[in-house]
Design a protein that fits this description.
Elements (H helix, E strand, L loop, with lengths): L2 E2 L7 H6 L15 E4 L6 E6 L5 H7 L1 H6 L5 E6 L3 H9 L5 E5 H8 L6 E7 L4 E6 L14 E4 L4 H11 L9 E4 L2 H10 L4 E5 L2 H8 L2 E6 L8 E6 H6 L1 H20 L1 H12 L3 H9 L10 H16 L14 E5 L1
Parallel strand pairs: 2-13, 3-4, 3-5, 8-9, 8-10
Antiparallel strand pairs: 1-13, 5-12, 6-12, 7-10, 7-11
Helix pairs in contact: 4-5, 5-13, 10-11, 11-12
Protein name: Putative aliphatic sulfonates-binding protein
Family: Belongs to the bacterial solute-binding protein SsuA/TauA family.
Pfam families: Phosphonate-bd
Length: 328
């Protein structure tokens, strides 16, 4: 017997556990792609960043426990930010991962894109920071200054939209493209005037790096985090995608209910202080949610702004990368 299911219809129990207080808009209609849930692969390659809760999932081993009964071996691959993770996804080196909204747009604009959106997470704290002693006190003061950020990362969009609040564009600053670890060094040495970054690196810079927040992302256009998959893999092995989403949501709820214990584990694995992680966990939302029109509309705004800014060469439609599961 054949029947069609939306990706999350089989996860009703999981959705009941999702973090309370999150606003939901109507579910997306007319999804463009479908996937089968009738088989299991030999391996699952997961891309993760140490700044994401995927690290906690990795250390807890929940995914391995669920998938080993189906003969699936889980392999983990670490990346410093979203763009290199998505390069690996488009190249077929990983199957599932977590990224911010901006790098997902860039990956979708790739002619050989394999990216599909599976679920979303609430925003994490992001901001433009400057040294506490800096003479820069407004966004307008960034004109002509050196600003460090990851090219194509969520910080890239944060900077773009922040500059717009002061009537500036990326052409008005000197971009310095650096990954978080390199940017931290450049920031502390004074090689750059400002740095655009996300938690926990943001919290660490505030507490230990002599940083002051110039502007945070709270008043800027929303940029959600996404669980993304490789199209060919997800269409063939939807059961795996469902398992990843359910276990990642379990991790979110565990961290939310016991943040101090989570901070200890994350501090051990990242070498970022326990107090920094407590600060990070206290100012973010929790839960892994089905994609909604509101979320995809926010993603479309990123795509439109990147096209207008010349960061991507063609227009993309975010909704075209939304997946539907088909069970046979």
């Amino acid at each position: 017997m054949k029947r069609r299911l939306l990706l999350f219809s089989v996860l009703s129990a999981f959705l009941l556990l999702a973090a309370c207080g999150q606003e939901r808009s109507a579910s997306l209609s007319s999804p463009k792609q479908s996937a089968s849930t009738d088989s299991w692969p030999k391996e699952l390659h997961v891309g993760f960043q140490k700044s994401s809760f995927s690290l906690f999932l990795k250390e807890k081993g929940y995914l391995e426990k669920q998938l080993q009964k189906h003969g699936v071996q889980v392999k983990w691959f670490e990346f410093q930010s979203g763009p290199p993770l998505l390069e690996a996804l488009n190249a077929g080196q990983i199957d599932i991962g977590y990224v911010g909204g901006a790098p997902a747009v860039l990956a979708q604009a790739n002619p050989d894109s394999q990216l599909v959106y599976l679920a979303y997470e609430p925003e994490v704290a992001r901001a433009i920071i400057v040294p506490k002693t800096s003479s820069i006190h407004t966004v307008a003061d960034l004109k002509g200054k050196k600003v460090a950020f990851g090219k194509g990362s969520s910080a890239h969009y944060t900077l773009l939209t922040a500059l717009e609040t002061a009537g500036l564009t990326l052409n008005d600053i000197t971009p310095v493209y650096l990954q978080p670890s390199e940017a931290r060094t450049a920031f502390e040495r004074g090689d750059v005037d400002a740095w655009v970054i996300w938690d926990p690196f943001l919290a660490d810079a505030e507490v230990n790096g002599g940083a002051r927040i110039l502007i945070d992302a709270k008043g800027l256009p929303k940029q959600y985090g996404f669980i993304v998959g490789r199209n060919e893999y997800v269409k063939q092995y939807a059961n795996v995608a469902q398992t990843v989403i359910a276990q990642l949501n379990k991790v979110h709820q565990e961290i939310h209910s016991s943040p101090d214990e989570a901070a200890k584990l994350l501090a051990k694995e990242t070498k970022i202080g326990e107090e920094i992680w407590k600060r990070t966990l206290s100012r973010r939302g929790y839960g892994v949610f089905p994609l909604t029109k509101e979320v995809i509309d926010a993603q479309q705004r990123i795509a439109d702004r990147f096209y207008e800014a010349g960061l991507i060469s063609k227009r993309v439609k975010a909704k075209d990368a939304v997946v539907v599961i088909k069970e046979q």
